[in-house]
From TrEMBL, chains A, B:
GO terms for biological process: L-methylmalonyl-CoA metabolic process. This is VOC domain-containing protein. Pfam families: Glyoxalase_4 (PF13669). Residues 10-150 form the VOC domain. Keywords: Metal-binding. One of its GO terms (molecular function) is metal ion binding.
Length: 151, 151
């Protein structure tokens, strides 16, 4: 039973905003008994085309992925100082769980489906091999829904 | 590959603190195209034996469970005014994702494993057919880890 508006019924990712990704990734690796993952940095604007609240932003983030749970991946995110949903979350709520991510097909169509429910894109961008859109679902769902589409 | 300290590598639940569960459960049901779930209230102290920060508390919460994602259940939680991790989260962070839950066996043993890592129980209690313990994992993991054990 897929969730019709999203076309999926699987949560693939839980995203956590952190202040110090080196420290928290080390704590995670130690706690879960797994290797320290590589910490990557999102691309610069010319490749990421990041838009936050409808405007281009130079925001970047450090990311680390943990796959020690077999059914859901955990993503750690350390935002930089530029405007982004990541930075806004850190300043408003502090560290904690920022989003739930799902894979979709035909992202533009799914975004249109959500717009009809009054849920707009808050941030979107590209990464190597795919793209993402954070949806402004907080009023309704109390979490940010991330749409991910790999090509 | 089980996470050794927990004896599991599956996330079973994402718990979300809300202010008005009737409204948010209705929004969820509508958004995901599923039936409105029953809203239940946790047991009184004589059955729940709820302990928060090592002391008995009369705290109760309204709960609603969504199983529209097939790999992880979403729990909505509306705390009452009594001291609890739910209430504390709402007052500190506002509405949002409060915990990640896993099923464990031999909960006491798992709690001991976590204590050795400096992670103590912040709240625990009983429900019909099982028990739970919220672990004070926020410093290390940036989320509250909930241990669930059904009998």
């Amino acid at each position: 039973m897929a969730n019709e508006r999203l076309g999926t019924d699987v949560i693939v990712q839980i995203g956590i905003i952190v202040k110090d990704i080196e420290k928290t990734a080390k704590d995670f690796a130690e706690f879960f008994g797994v290797d320290m993952p590589q910490i990557i940095v999102t691309e610069e604007y010319d490749k990421s085309h990041t838009q936050y609240k409808g405007k281009p932003t130079n925001a970047r983030a450090k990311l680390a992925f943990f796959r020690n749970f077999k059914n859901v991946e955990i993503e750690l995110i350390e935002p930089d100082e530029n405007p982004s949903t990541w930075r806004e979350f850190l300043e408003t709520h502090g560290e904690g769980i920022h989003h739930i991510g799902v894979f979709v097909k035909n992202m533009d169509e799914k975004i249109e489906n959500l717009k009809k429910e009054g849920i707009e894109v808050v941030q979107k961008g590209d990464y190597t091999g795919g793209r993402y859109a954070y949806m402004d679902s907080t009023d309704k769902l109390k979490f940010i829904l991330e749409l991910l589409e790999n090509f």
